[in-house]
Amino acid sequence: MAGEFEYGNPYADSKQAVDSIIKSLKQTAKDFNLDLNDIDYETVIGKKTLSDESSPDGLHKFSIRATLSGERSFGSKDFATKWEQNTEHIEGVGSLVFSGQRNFAGSTRIELAHSNHDLLEQSSEYLINQIGSLSGVRSVQSSDQQGKVQYNFKLKDKAIKLGVTAEYLAQQVRNSFFGVSAMSQQVKYDEVTYRVKLPESERSSLYTLDNLRIILPNKEEAFLQDLASVSVERSYTTIEKLMEIELQRF
After folding, report:
1. Widest CA span in the chain
2. Which fold does the domain 149-234 belong to in CATH?
């Protein structure tokens, strides 16, 4: 089986999902009167094994490959179907596919491309609904994954009159949430940088963002919401070019 959360989801969510699915795997083995020693399974999160938490890529993706040994009176698809039924709902998972074949993605793959993202989403949803209504089709999965949440700031006229530029505003917001470098210290072969930023409880609140105090060029202060309008959208996960046409994947 294979599954994935939204792009950028933390390792801990994938690890918890894997633990839950392994639990249902063991229950499925009991349902088929199998000895757990007859099942070899491998778990992978991201591009490395489950025991390696340092993998920086694809930690929102996970997979479990189970191999059944010995003679049996049922097929691998039967086992995969029962495994899926035994697996409880996992909050936040965008895709979860159980397959009795080696190819987790299934035998048919369809890719859509268009420069208009809204139209692309509508077409994708329509296609999924139409294919899902066909007889004999058991499961239709979309590989579309939204990128990380992105906050866009647009300066208001008031900010421009006060001499605030986009770069000036972005730097202050970055310093508040990512931190401003206070000092650096050499520890053996590594350089350790100490940053000063808002407390963690405040960095996780949108209220803090709206009411963030910005120091103006004239050294006075103003709230961020008075200087810029904020919009929230999803960033691109990848940007590719196909036949000189730019494709933005969400």
Report:
1. 80
2. 3.30.2090
